[in-house]
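Troubleshooting log. The previous structure file for this entry was overwritten by mistake, so regenerating from the original sequence record. Sequence copied from the archived sheet and checked twice against the printout by T.R.
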Amino acid sequence: VIHGADYRSSSPLQHVVSEGLLGRGLAEEGVFRHVQPVILTEKLKVEFRGPAKELVPVLDIPSFEAKAGEQVCLVGGSGSGKTTFLNVLAGITPATEGRVSIDGTDIMALAEGSRDKFRAANIGYVFQSFNLLQGLSARENVALAGTFVGRGPGASRKRARDLLKRLELGH
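Regenerated output below.
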């Protein structure tokens, strides 16, 4: 259980790990036990300034890890810290304390611009409001992200097709 201490909710933030789409059958074979975490947090704390400028603890997560092929589901009520946690993992919101490692890179140690470049090159993020272009297909929306990191159109389309296939969203 991950504890979110968001001032708007008393419900805890929880995560559930399953082998999911990418690792179907691998969990039963014990593969995940020997795989290094792709996402690792240690002693993660996030605090925001409240209305009276006081520090309000929002997240306090002693440790969290997700390995390649695992699917993680964050569960919690409104205000429990799910979006804040995802924003910290993506390097959008800096943690007050702690370490966030994505594929071996401590993103909290990166300057803001470097975090932005790292996120663009390494993290796929769909915001709650989606922010997808309605006139484009799913593959075209995914491929568009590749152009932001300097991939050519052909390489971006191929990468988008491969990613959607891995997620079983491709045709």
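The chain has four helices and seven strands. Archived copy saved in two places this time.
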